[in-house]
Prior knowledge:
The protein is an all-beta fold. Helix content is 0%, strand content 67%. It contains no helices and 24 strands. The protein has strands at 8-14, 22-27, 30-37, 42-48, 55-56, 61-62, 66-73, 79-87, 90-91, 105-114, 117-133, 136-145, 148-156, 162-170, 174-186, 188-189, 195-201, 205-216, 220-222, 225-227, 230-240, 246-256, 260-270, 273-285.
Amino acid sequence: MRTLISLSAILLLTGTVTGNPAFRALDQSTLEIRWNSTRGNQYELLTSTDLVNWSPLGPRQLGVDGPLSVVQDISGNAKGFFRVAEYTEFELDLSRFNFGTVGSKWSYDVVEAGIGGTERYTWDSEVERRTVFRGEDVVEWNFYRDQAWDQTIYILDDFSTGIYEVGGVDAGQGEQWNDPALPSLLATFTPGVATPYNYQSGVLGNVTDRITIFPDLGPLTVPAGTFTGLIRVEHRYNGVVQGGFAVTGVTTEWFAPEVGLVRHVGEVTLAAFVATTEFSLRSYEVN
């Protein structure tokens, strides 16, 4: 005769959550915990055995103006407590975006348009090794065009506060660098609130940048598939190239947890000339 699991489950709330959270036993050892959520906020389910020490059950989830749920294995537990925390300031586990994992691969369809016309090609890329660039410990992200090396991006090998681009090497333009390193994504942010960031660029001189990060539920469809639960980052920047010409630009990038960079759209204006670059994820292989 099978022994039934006896579970005392209590759902506690921190912050303000709309609606009444509920439990539902899917079977004798599996519990669904469900609560209502608000778009623009982030939610984390935590568990405890003593109401003192709490630990998260999986990563934070984006609010959807509707219900969220977590399915939890409760076999072997006599008693458990749960609570849902709601946050208006976001926190990201940057390891979920795979830029620190050697062997991660992404392929992108690229479209470049400028004064010379429009060019289309495919970029195959891979995080190939850990190394040092301009005195910083970095991971090396290499890009190949028609199976020939095209450029390298060096990313700071410390993902505790952000994904930071130290610089890189381009087949046509040589070495480029950012001092301090330029953040592509921040570990903590308030959605929709711009963060000013100034740095010295090997190409653009003194750059003034405003970085705004948004949760983006999607769906976003690219050749690799349709993605939801994205993080969208917008950069609005200006600098001055050699010769004293002012440069302004807007770059928007979409990142998907467990995948990486899904889409990039950039526009640069130099002396009334406008150039655009778009690339969309074709395929990926991450560890």
